Amino acid sequence: MGRRSLVAVLAVTAFAAGACGSDTGPATPTPNSAPVIADLSTRLIELEERHNVMFGIAAYSPTGARPFEWNADDPFAMCSTFKVYAVAALLRLAERGEVDLNESVPILRDELVLASPTTSYRAGETLTWYDLSQAAIVRSDNTAANMILRRIGGPPAVTALARSVGDTETRLDRWEPELNEGLPGDTRDTSTAAAMATGFHQLILGNALSPGHRRMLTGWMRSSVTSRERMRAGLPVGWVAADKTGAGGFGTVNDAGVVWSPTGTSVVLVIFSRSTIGYPTAAPSNQALAEATTAVLEAVTS
Fold first, then answer.
1. Which of 51, 108, 112, 124 reaches 20 to 30 Å from 6, CA-CA?
2. Which pLDDT does position 29 carry in this prediction?
3. Every domain of the chain and the residues it spans
4. What is the pLDDT of residue 32?
5. Residues catalogued as catalytic
6. How far is CA 276 from CA 54, 55, 129, 139, 211, in A?
């Protein structure tokens, strides 16, 4: 079935060896893992062909679900998923006493950029760093993200945060909104599904942040309003998500975070996608990402 399907099956062994740095590690795959993963691979190929997309997927669970990878080491434009790392870097400054999250920050009209649903209505007023972090994660506010980037030291600070949590691939080079260009083959502002799964695991389920700040970040991701037609549309009944979306040129649609089943199974799930049509203005496919979410979770938890 080609490289992608082979990688998907071999991922069981790779993740079992600790690829995502879990303290406990995933449960040992059951003997029927390979047929289940092969069926999932067939399903993903069908989705890619029907929606004219390419997926990059990593699913990892410290609580018993099967691990899975699909083009997980291929770079994709990460778009607004970077905001989790940017806010995490700000929270780390707060932990060291270098940032007061309650400090009021002026919202300057000439600094507003596109897709700023919170700050665009507060120009000439002030918001706290807490408010700006919430806006960047919950509503994916681009101006808020740029203000946070400026405070933490610019795009290189996001790259540094990624490295500190075991993510060896994510790199941020530009600011909002230019970082959403999504040009295929351009390595700027990219990540891989496997790398981001590693980092998000440490931030949301690990100890990369203090308990209070980890709960704060997770709460904002749980409150996201941008995932309704993406990962959350594909969740089985009763599941919940703490995730961050991203979208950009060339039909880029992303969603990354942690999902939990009603019985407590947690799965770190990263799904990147881009159009295979090759046009900068190619329509993004939220439906493809939602259907991939359903397919992956059904396979790794069956």
1. 51
2. 42
3. 3-300
4. 52
5. 80
6. 6, 10, 39, 28, 41
